Amino acid sequence: MVKRYSFGDVFQTDSIPVIPEAQTGAMPYMDVCESEMSLTYQMDPEDIVYGLGENVRGINKRGWIYESKCSDESKHLEDRRSLYAAHNFIVVDGRETFGLFIDYPGILTFDVGYTELSTLRITASDWNLDVYVIEGESAVEIIRTFRKLIGRSYIAPLWAFGNGQSRWGYVNAQDVRDVVRNHRENGIPLDMVYLDIDYMERFKDFTVNKERFPDFAEFVQEMKDQHIRLVPIIDAAVKEEKGYSVYDEGIEKGYFCTGADGKPFVGAVWPGRSLFTDMLNKEARDWFGDQYKVLLDQGIEGFWNDMNEPSIFYAEDRLADALASIADMRDGDQNLDLDAFTKFKNLVLDLSANPEDYKKFYHNVNGKRIRHDQVHNLYGYNMTRAAGEAFERLAPDKRILMFSRASCIGMHRYGGIWQGDNKSYWGHLLMNLKMMASLNMCGFLYTGADLGGFGSDTTEDLVMRWYALGIFTPLMRNHSEMGTRRQEVYRFTDLEGFKNIIGLRYKLLPYLYSEYMKAVLDDDLMFRPLAFDHPGDKRARTIEDQLYLGKELMIAPVYEQNARGRYVYLPERMKMLRFTRDGGMEETVLEKGDHYVEVPLSDVVFFLREGRLIPLSGGGQCVDDVDFENLAVVSFGENAEYEYYHDDGLSKDYENPVNRRVIRA
Ligand code: GLC
Fold first, then answer.
1. Which residue minimizes the CA distance to atom 10 of ligand 1?
2. Distance separating alpha carbons of residues 18 and 32, to the nearest angstrom
3. Are residues 587 and 616 in contact, defined by beta-carbon separation less than 8 angstroms?
4. Is 196 within 8 Å of 483 (Cβ atoms)?
């Protein structure tokens, strides 16, 4: 049951495709305080608060304050209040169980017991918002109702479930060829190589550097002949440069965001001075979407959209002011004491993503000028929507891979997301796991984190443990920052170990793809906290380092350095499956309760529920190699059955009944 309560003059976000009638009575559960622009709820000590999709901290969001404010937040530290997304959906589960979605494009605060331990307070920056109250028997039922309300999640092509290799710093065709050769020669499966900003001509969207990639279309084909798809990055900002067609055309047609003076707003990102396409203006959005054609025409079938919070390194006027102030400081050889030096440092640090700069530019929404900060969280969403809508026009019968960095709810219909610039920290491996469940609640199913960690130097054991989780996530990609230690798996010592782990992904693919597709088509969760299946089990309600994956499996990755195993809590009897480095599989039945499980570095261990089975393929070096029809099964118990979903992975005939069949042991 969904009830909408509407306040003020609500901006049409299109987060919800079909908006239900607004209610007139008082809102249940929440105390509404219009003068403070807040909604408040007194939490019971046992209540769990789920949701908020991409954000820091736990699956249970209690004990911190979160801001829905899409931010280029590369530190990912525990003290942050936001990451790249604004996912305004929560479920309170306990004494009372209900869901809340705040349809609002500006900045929102979720104080979940930060100011006062037992108070949940949601505060908006202005009082123009729709609040949806969602009721149901359980947290899962509420989430399914919410997912139905926001519309079907984006569906990725099957090949995008293969292993992907990325690095900021593969600068030319030869670098890419080397990556592919090293994988193939070492028998490490691979399906995608990502192209970071280095492939562009001086960071200009929709261009390819001709010196580095002399015949791009031919190169794309050369890779396809080896079953490799190239996936280029697209950035939000457009370089200011006369003669660059995207800039010229955008200026001529008035498609860029403008400043208070009506002139295009200039901020800087990778190319230096850049402009921001007005993604909220339908005409401009269509135009930006059409630009992807130039790469589609050269054989590209997938993209990642980046820097679309949007990230701004500096605004022109702020840079000028900062430089003038710094010059003043040196005037007369001023001594930089503590105060002066702090001021100097902050002049530089405050240049990037300065909240005041988001108040300096405007969108044109149906002829009305809207200041950016009031609709900030819609930018990345609408950039990805631009692409998604364009793909429907340009390649209607084909699935195109698309995932974005910034997002808000609504964008889940047009693309997946990756979890942004994490670091090579053990804690970020665990955060990757936790976010899978929260993201699924908010409709993001094609997702994963940079395996091995994006920033900082990694270590072989961290990469290996991270893969032992990454083989389960729909988006499986090793990506790292320029200047950090190289982390392609073939650079490490235990190649056999990596081969075994990544090889297992391809054996699991029939199950993983089937679970992903069923979760999308049935508005369900692919990854669930244990508590969802055992609501009465107090232990299960506190477990955040294990997740159910589909109806059959539980995963419990190792996320600590030098650990030789870990404690696992089984809320019911399960069969432990251990895949060893020699390609073998061991099966051990374990009773309900706590177990210490040894997990040598190159083993993968997970758990199969009683009365269930999973299909396994024979594996392969790429998705095209995998036989999705002749499957082995691993089962636990008599008469186990599995509802297997499979389709061609490329076209869009999702509902065809032949896609689903029952597999028996
Ligand atoms: C951003 C992205 C990262 C990318 C880098 C260079 O930091 O999040 O993935 O490698 O930009 O394009």
1. 168
2. 25
3. no
4. no
pLDDT-derived band of residue 94, with 50, 70 and 90 as boundaries? very high
Q: Which of 404, 376, 100 is nearest to 257 (CA)?
A: 376
**Separation of alpha carbons 388 and 245, rounded Å:** 22
The mean per-residue pLDDT over the stretch 582-587 comes to: 95
Torsion angles phi and psi, residue 511, rounded to 5: -70, -50
The pLDDT value given to residue 72:
96
- What is the C-alpha to C-alpha distance for residues 543 and 307, in angstroms, rounded to an integer? 34
**Ligand 1 binding pocket mutation candidate from 196, 304, 403, 487 (most atoms within 8 A of CB):** 196
pTM for the complete prediction?
Answer: 0.97
Mean pLDDT of 93-103: 98
User: Mutate which of 76, 234, 306, 478 to test ligand 1's pocket (most atoms within 8 Å of Cβ)?
Assistant: 306
What per-residue confidence (pLDDT) applies to 340? 87
Residue 517, SS3 per DSSP: helix
Predicted confidence (pLDDT) per residue in 320-364, tens digit: 999 998 888 876 677 888 988 899 999 999 999 999 999 999 999
Signed CA dihedral, 323, 328, 333, 335: sign only: negative
pLDDT tens digit string along 127-141? 999 999 999 999 999
Centre of ligand 1 to C-alpha 306, Å, is 7
Cα distance between residue 45 and residue 615, in whole Å? 42
How much distance in Å is there from the Cα of 430 to the middle of ligand 1?
Answer: 21
Q: How far is CA 493 from CA 185, 462, 470, 489, 490, in A?
A: 15, 13, 20, 9, 8
Identify the residues whose C-beta falls under 6 Å from ligand 1: 168, 196-197, 233, 306, 405, 420-421, 479
Best residue for ligand 1 mutational test, from 421, 422, 428, 487 (most atoms within 8 Å of Cβ): 421
Tens of pLDDT, residues 229-267: 999 999 999 999 999 999 999 999 999 999 999 999 999
Q: Which two tokens stand for residue 612?
A: 């269930």
Closest C-alpha to ligand 1, atom 12: 197
Mean residue pLDDT of the chain comes to: 97
Residue 202: the pLDDT is 97
Which residues, listed in sequence order, are joined to residue 402 by a DSSP beta bridge? 303
Using CA positions, which residue lies closest to atom 5 of ligand 1? 168
What percentage of the chain has pLDDT greater than the value 90?
96
Q: For residues 411 and 404, what is the distance between their CA atoms, to the nearest angstrom? A: 9
Over pLDDT 70: what percentage of the chain?
Answer: 100
Q: What is the pLDDT of residue 335?
A: 83
Distance 194 CA to ligand 1 centre (A): 11
- Position 332 scores a pLDDT of 66
State the sign of the Cα–Cα–Cα–Cα dihedral 605, 601, 546, 615: negative
Expressed in angstroms and rounded, the spacing between residue 177 Cα and the centre of ligand 1 is 21
Q: What is the SS3 assignment for 400? A: coil
At which residue do the structure tokens 């976000």 appear? Answer: 13
Please report the sign of the dihedral spanned by the C-alpha atoms of residue 580, residue 583, residue 588, residue 592: positive
- Please report where in the chains the tokens 């190169």 appear, as a residue: 219
Strand partners, 119: 42
Looking at the CA of residue 196, tell me the nearest atom of ligand 1: 12
Q: Which two tokens stand for residue 634?
A: 């691993």
Report how far residue 262's alpha carbon sits from residue 246's, in angstroms, rounded to the nearest whole number: 20
